[in-house]
Structures are given as structure tokens and as C-alpha cells.
Amino acid sequence: MTATATRPAPPRAPRSKRRGASRQKREMWLLMLPAMVPVLLFSVGPLLYGIGLAFTDARNTRVHETSFVGLENFTRMLSDEQFWASFQIGAIWSVSVTVLQFLAALGLALLLNMNLRFRSVARVLAVVPWAMPPVVIGLMWKLVYHPDAGILNGLLGTDVNWLADFSLALPAIIVVGVWTGMPQTTVVLLAGLQNVPKELYEAGEVDGAGRWRRFWNITLPQLRPVIVAITSLDFVWNFNQFGLVYVLTQGGPGGRTRLPMLFAYEEAFRYRAAGYASMLGLAMAIVVLAVLGLYLWRQMREAK
Amino acid sequence: MRRVPLYAALLAYVVFLAFPLLWLLSTALKTPQEMALTSPTWIPREPTPANFTDAFGEQDLVGAALRSLVVALASSLLTVVISLPAAYSMARYRSLVNRIAIGWVLVSQVFPFILIIIPLFLIMRDLELVNTLPGLVAVHVTFTLPFALWMLQGYVRAVPRELEEAASVDGASRLRAIASVVAPLLAPGVVATLLFAFISSWNEFMFALVFLQDPDVMTLPLTLVRFTGPEGVARLGPLAAASLMATIPSLIFFAIIQRRLKSGLMAGAVKG
């Protein structure tokens, strides 16, 4: 304390402050460095490298001379029927899983937010899928859908090979997608519900608003930022889903569940077309960012 | 009486959420003979732990579990050691670098991994790190880092700066102030981050699939998937048992952080 009290007049202060700032800067860099090395080496670097690869004919083999091919991969992609089929499946998958996840999670969150008995059971169950490794979720549902030893055929009295059926495979994995992603969405929506000020509901009740009116006019507008955040995240996560579907169907039957991620993975690591697969990845990144940007922009405009 | 539809809805949710889990459990306790029956039964007639012991007898599975354990331990420790100083810096100093770092944390949640994984594979191959566990650890650390940073800087922010300053005023050096005042308060956050990183690595599938092609180095999720070969229903029992055991670490983690999940962790992550 005495040191600060006896410190001489202001003139010297700016200099020492500057010296302090530069020391602080050095310290900051030193602290950031260990985290920056792996991120630059294994994440930022590959990202830029990958964008570059998209414009080459790189092959995922040891002996291959890579050369720049401009937009060749892009034109090939546009005329690739498998690509369009895969993107269509990806669109159906990610939109329907996101919407169903949201509706199911909103319902569950509303129930959990009420004073119901046994809700603690539901609350624990609602988190369990979150805690499971995606591979185990995939294997578990494979057991449910299994044509011989599975329970679903037993329950419904059917004899269907769910995951190998051309028209049923996609709906079947969508159900698994909803089951898997519901917990996060429920937990986030529940947290949002609990942050809605109680006074608003009391005021609504005084004004004679019924349950539905209160839901439409109080709950939904109040939840809006949370809903926008979690549905955007869900959409991106679903669009980028890989492990779950890989375990369930490997993209089969006949490519009916081949999400864009699986398509690009096969191109890169089965057919070894690293350049083309990078172009597919780039296209996916642009589509995700565009959809996300559009959605967030519209939501923000409406919020105003 | 008005509540009846509500309870019906809650029950529907419970059934939807629970039935695949119960079926997994049921399959894990069945004998191969019962599995081969044409009409599957919910409750095993003669529940048997044989599938669990069989799973332990499978050398592939045990080896894979040990490798997964090593990879997850190494990645979680490294993640925390690397991200702790950076998180401290992000929470305490305002600067361009830190703002970029926070931006990266958010962007990394959105990015299609496929665009990174191909060049990353080529880089790892040149570094001779494909088919090695250290290679996988490096990748897991890199991709757990953003969220770990996010968690940790939140915990650092929660420690009042005044405490640190008070310690310095009392004559402690900065390092000592941090070690004796900040560190103990950070301990719970560090543990939570460690657990998070451990689970992320333990559960991770896609990077492992790309980087580990030799069965001798495969981690547990990969080996479990390989285990579902074309052999039919005979091996489904041990598979179900092994799947259940593979879930135990995550369940422990979630049991520990369950209370915080509701409001703290995810709310903070989403509000940004």
C-alpha cells in the first residue's frame, strides 16, 4: 500500500503503463501459444489445405502427382446424379430430424416444466440418450430393428427388414435421429422455460388469457432466442451427422440413406478421390452456412 | 381429471425413450437359444450374465477398451493442460487474439468435418501418425479444445479478479497468487472439463474410423462396429453386453454433472 501512496507524480505513469501493456501482451501470447499450435496445425491448416484441394485432382494414394484443375471438380459435382440424390436425402434428413426433434422436445420440456408426478423419471430418461456413445445408440437401434431378433417386428406383428427396405430405411433412421438429438434440445428449452418471468404468466392470467393464449403470446415469444439458437445448432449437427447412420445402414440400401457426409467419406476413403471429396465438403460447408445465415437473418428481422 | 392427457403424453415420452434401452438390456441378458426364437421376448426366460463374461473373453474387445482408455486419458489430460493457460488469458485480457479465439470456438461447432478430415489425413500420413494412438490423441485434443476452452474460460471468469489482486497486495507474486488463490477455486471446473474431454474422446467415432485402419490399434467404438459382422444373431448378446459396458463412463459423467446440466452448462453454451 505504501508503494502506491508514495508513487511520484503522473509524468512517469504513461511510460510504465505502456511497459505494463507490452509485458501483458507477451504474457498473453505465451499463455495462448500451447493451445494455438494444435489448432493451427490440425484444424486451421487442414481447413485451408482442404479448400485448396477442392480445386485439384488430388488422390488419396501415395504415388500420385497432384495438379491444379480449376473448377473441374465443381462441374463434375453438378452433373453427378449420386451427389444430387445424396444432397436430397441430406436435406430430407436434416430438416425432418430438426423439426421433429424440436416439436418433440418442446412438448417434453413443457411437460417437465409442469408440476407432474413421475416427471423426475422422465427427466433422467430424457438425458440418457445424450450420455450414450453414438455408436452404441446405432447398435442398440439395430437390435430394435433387427429383422429376426428385433423387438419392432415382434411388437407390430410384421416381418420387415426395416433398415434394408428401400422406402422404410430413411424414415427408420430419422426416428433414431430424433431419439438421439431430443435430449439436448429438451434440456435447453427447459432452461429457457424456467427463465420466463413468472410475472408475465400472472399478468396473463389476470387478463383472462387461457392456456393456449398464454403459450402463444407469452411462452413462445419469450423462448424465441433459445429456439432460434438450438434449432440452428440442431440443423448443423444433423446435417453433419455421420457415425450414427454409418453404424445403422452405412448409407444403404442402394444409397437410400447415404447422407452427404457418407457420400463424401466414400469418395475420399473408398474411391480415394481426395480432390473431388474436398469439393463435396466445400459445397456442404457453403450450403450449411448459407442456410444458417438465411435463417438467422430472417429470425433477427422478424424479432425487430 | 384435466391432467389425464398430460400424464398420457408423459407416459408416451417415457415409453419412446426407454424401450430401446430396455431392449438392449434384455438382449444382453439372453441366451443364444432364446435369441434364435422366432417371436422375441421382452423378459429373458433365463437371464444370464454369460454375454458379459463372453464380452470380456473377446480379446479384441478388451484390448480395444484398454486402448480407448489410454487415448481418452491422454487426450483429456493434454486438453486441460493446454487449454487452461489459454482460457485464463481469454477470460482476463481483452484483445484481438482472444476475440478471434472465441470466434473460432463458435465456428468450430458449425464446421463440416469432412472438409478438414481429408487434408488432415494427408498431413497425418506424411507425419507417419496414421494408425497410431498418438495421432488419434492429437486429433482428439484439437477438436475437444474449442469447447474445453469455452468451459474453462467461463470458470476463470467466475473467480473474482479482486481475489487475485488482493493476494498480490498481500505480497504474493502473481504466480503464487494464481497458484494459491485461483487454482483451488478452479478445481471443480477443471474436473468437469477433464470429464467432458474424456467422454468426447471415449465416444468419438469418425476420426478413429479414418485414422485407425489396422484392427490392432482400433478403439472401442470401432471394434464394436466391426463386431457386428455377418455372423447373424449368435453374437448379438455379447455385442449388447459390450455396448452397455461401453456406456458406463458416460453415464457416470452425466450422473455427476446432472444437476448443472439443467441451467448452467448448456444455458451458458447456448447464450454465447
Output the keywords:
heterodimer, A: 304 residues, 74% helix, B: 272 residues, mainly alpha, 78% helix, 0% strand, disordered C terminus, transmembrane (chain B)
Short description:
Chain A has 304 residues and is mainly alpha-helical. Chain A has 13 helices and no strands. Chain A has one domain: MetI-like fold (Orthogonal Bundle).
Overview of the structural elements:
- The complex is a heterodimer of chains A (304) and B (272).
- Chain A is globular.
- Chain A has 13 helices and no strands.
- The two termini of chain A are 51 Å apart.
- Chain A has a single domain (76-303), classed as MetI-like (MetI-like fold), CATH 1.10.3720.
- Chain A is mainly alpha-helical.
- Chain B has twelve helices and no strands.
- With 272 residues, chain B is an all-alpha fold.
- Chain B has a domain at 69-215 and 244-271: MetI-like fold (Orthogonal Bundle).
- In chain B, α9 packs across α12 and α11 crosses α12 (236-271).
- Classes of the chains: A mainly alpha (304), B mainly alpha (272).
Q: What is the beta-strand fraction of chain A? A: under 5%
Whole-number total of structural domains of chain A: 1
CATH architecture of the domain at 69-215 and 244-271 in chain B: Orthogonal Bundle
How would you name the CATH homologous superfamily of the domain at 69-215 and 244-271 in chain B? MetI-like
Q: Quick one: overall form of chain B?
A: globular
Would you identify the CATH H-level superfamily of chain A? MetI-like
How many beta-strand segments of chain B?
Answer: 0
Helical amount of chain B: over 70%
Q: Which helices and strands appear, and what pairs or packs with what?
A:
The complex is a heterodimer of chains A (304) and B (272).
Chain A (H helix, E strand, L loop, with lengths): L1 H5 L6 H41 L18 H7 L2 H32 L6 H13 L2 H12 L5 H6 L12 H26 L3 H9 L4 H29 L3 H6 L11 H10 L4 H30 L1
Chain B lengths: L3 H25 L3 H4 L14 H8 L1 H34 L3 H12 L5 H14 L6 H26 L2 H9 L4 H30 L2 H6 L8 H8 L8 H36 L1
Helix pairs in contact in B: 1-12, 3-12, 4-7, 4-9, 4-11, 5-7, 7-9, 8-9, 9-12, 11-12
